[in-house]
Amino acid sequence: MSAVTLKTGERFNLNDAVGTDPLRIEILWALADTSQKPDVDASVFVCKIANGTKTIISDEYFVFYNNKVSPDGAVTHQGDTVPGTDGVPDKQVVRIDLAKLSRYAQELRFFVTIHRSEERGQTFADVPTLGVRLYNNTTGVELARYDVEQADGDVSSVLIATIQRETPDAPCWFEAAGEGSQHDLGELVDEHMPN
User: Fold this and answer.
1) Quick one: 87 exposed, middle or buried, by C-beta within 10 A (0-12, 13-18, 19+)?
2) Total domains present in the chain
3) For position 1, what pLDDT does the model report?
4) C-alpha closest to that of 74 among 22, 110, 142
5) Which of 32, 41, 123, 176 is packed most tightly, with the most Cβ within 10 A?
6) What is the pLDDT, as a whole number, of residue 187?
7) 120: DSSP letter
């Protein structure tokens, strides 16, 4: 079975594709040929939704390079960037076990940000290639892929994809997002924290 190629806004049913098998999500990027390379990072916000507002369940459900595993064990950030070779993009890997997700989790939001972007004057215009690959982690089969269109020059973060479910028993959907913003990682976290 060949991987499904998604466009922005399209969704992929995870339950039909993997059942109870865990997922591997690879977030890929290639950098422009500039003298100072952007420091790109991936992170996951595990959110609940109330009255349309998406907030991180608690501080520990903000998963990134300094907090690599969510409390429920469902989300594991593999850590440092894996350098690409021979034209293959750099990547960071996140493993997802849907069966372990907290019952409060309704949306996982996958962000890609540039460290100290404002200070260094860097944006995603310096990251011409940005995409995500979704795998069955047990079989290694690629299920879906999404490549983000070229981001606007003033974008310093991108919501690249989400995993959504309304209730613990509802189907899980992977959605290609590709939403850019001018907010850095700290600002994104602040926006998603409960009041």
Assistant:
1) exposed
2) 1
3) 65
4) 22
5) 176
6) 94
7) H
Distance CA 184, CA 118 (A): 8
Burial-class residue 39 by CB neighbours within 10 Å (0-12, 13-18, 19+).
middle
How far apart CA 94 and CA 98 sit, in angstroms, is 13
Model-level pTM greater than 0.90?
yes
Alpha-carbon distance 65 to 177, whole Å?
22
Q: Tell me which residues of the chain have a pLDDT lower than 70.
A: 1, 34-35, 84-87, 150-153
Please give the residue range of the domain that contains residue 24.
4-192
Half-sphere exposure of 132 (CA within 13 A, CB side): 29
Tell me how far apart the alpha carbons of residues 143 and 80 are, in angstroms, rounded to a whole number: 24
Selection from 110, 114, 116 nearest residue 96 by Cα: 110
**Cα dihedral 125, 184, 109, 180 in deg (nearest 10):** -30
How far is Cα 129 from Cα 37, in angstroms, rounded to an integer? 14
Dihedral class, residue 120 (left if φ above 0, else alpha if ψ from -120 to 50, else beta): alpha
Structural Rg of the chain based on CA atoms: 16
Contact residues for 90 (Cβ-Cβ < 8 A; gap 6+): 28, 29, 30, 31, 40, 81, 82, 83, 84
Which amino acid is present at 5?
T
d(CA 170, CA 31): 38
The CATH number for 33's domain is 2.60.60.30
